[in-house]
Amino acid sequence: MNAVAVKKDLFWIGSVNFGCLDFHGYSLAPRGTTYNCYVLKDQKNVLFDTVQAPHTEEMLTRLKQVIEPEKIDYIVANHLEPDHAGVLPELVKICRPEKIFCSVMGEKSMRGYFNTEGWPVQTVKTGDVVNTGAHNIHFVETRMLHWPDSMFSYIPEERLVISNDAFGQNIASSERFADELNRAALIHGIEEYYYNIVLPFSPQVLKTLDMIAGLKLDIEMIAPDHGLIFRNKDDVDFILKKYRELAEQKPGKKALICYDTMWHSTEKLAYHVGCGLEEAGVPYRIMPLKNHHHSEIMTELAGCGAVVAGSPTHNNGIMPAVSAVLTYMKGLRPQNRIGGAFGSFGWSGEAVKVITEYLEAMRMEIPGQAVKCAYRPAPGDLEAAAALGRTIGKALTAKCEDLRHP
Ligand SMILES: Cc1cc2nc3c(=O)[nH]c(=O)nc-3n(C[C@H](O)[C@H](O)[C@H](O)COP(=O)(O)O)c2cc1C
Ligand SMILES: [Fe+2]
Ligand SMILES: [Fe+2]
After folding, report:
1. Three-class secondary structure of residue 340 per DSSP
2. In the chain, where does the domain assigned CATH 3.40.50.360 lie?
3. Class of the CATH domain delimited by 4-248
4. Which pLDDT score is estimated for 332?
5. Averaged over 300-304, what is the pLDDT?
6. Among 38, 58, 160, 362, which is disulfide-ready with 15 (CB 3.0 to 4.6 Å)?
7. Distance (Å, rounded) from C-alpha 272 to C-alpha 383?
8. How far is the CA of 138 from the centre of ligand 2 (A)?
9. Rounded to whole angstroms, how far apart are CA atoms 217 and 160?
10. Fold for the domain defined by 256-398
11. 156-200, pLDDT tens digit by residue?
12. C-alpha 269 to ligand 1 mean position (Å)
């Protein structure tokens, strides 16, 4: 794969990792990922971001297709996480840039990761502009979207925003542009990325979207540092609208049931919760945690306004997979959800209480009675599970209606 001209003077020189399954050590990227970085050719030649260190050769090969590396004058580091700054030390050595631009917090993380002695670092803040000849780079800090150092680079002459992690997707593909990919696959990639990485920073997303609207930036292209590039006005509008929708977290009329089980009693309850939801007219998906990684659960949550979690009582607590998924979910701070708990037990039965505490910590509404059954569920227990499903289904339907007709 070669460097790709994204605009007349702007080139993609990133790397594509079809084999990356584990993204950053905590999330799955079943379709691999890309690390995008870009070169702007002008009187001053600029490199925006780099890639993860193991992909150094790949990036350098593409860089050399576009320009001799020594001719890079400026490096912009929009974010210092190692997937974007991994090749920085190597490039500083090779390019000997005149300047390296990053935010104030970026300088801190840069010094935390690398020996920056002698590096020509210049910190920038929102409103600062750097002229490169025919172009001006406007810096826009996007603190905590998703690190304190994160920022965007806006080039009005190209109507282009290089947005770093925001608007990204974990998709490895030969295609570089969003309009070249199947739309359903693209949307799945956007939601997967948002729900596993960006979700806790939804308030910052809304602030950033308002800021973009307020500044009346003329944007015809958004180029993130992962995945496909949005290269026309329709796709720019599409991704901005999609991000607002994701950040607002209006509940979807669908429920997610996740559980683990040892001897299948909790599983039986899960299926009966599903029956109750069905009776209430709410679609659902049952996700056994032996089959699904916690990042798949989060991706599914994008469309679900309710989470019903089940676990047998295991050593006075819950099963490790349930604990893992609830811990992960809680950290990602989903909003506006309805929750429910169920589980089988033998003698002490703490599981539903532990699950409920997680749901409460996520400030979920809990309209139904948690279902707890001793050993094997009796008919009454199965009916209680169905009743829980019905109650959650009705509450979710009402919540969705209220939002439609406030
Ligand atoms: C290793 C192990 C530890 C358990 N610890 C507890 C416990 O601390 N308290 C309790 O009430 N039941 C405990 N149980 C009993 C299970 O909760 C009970 O068998 C339950 O019906 C299993 O539900 P399941 O069929 O969904 O796996 C334990 C079972 C096993 C195998
Ligand atoms: Fe990042
Ligand atoms: Fe990233």
Report:
1. strand
2. 256-398
3. alpha beta
4. 98
5. 98
6. 58
7. 7
8. 20
9. 9
10. Rossmann fold (3.40.50)
11. 999 999 999 999 999 999 999 999 999 999 999 999 999 999 999
12. 15
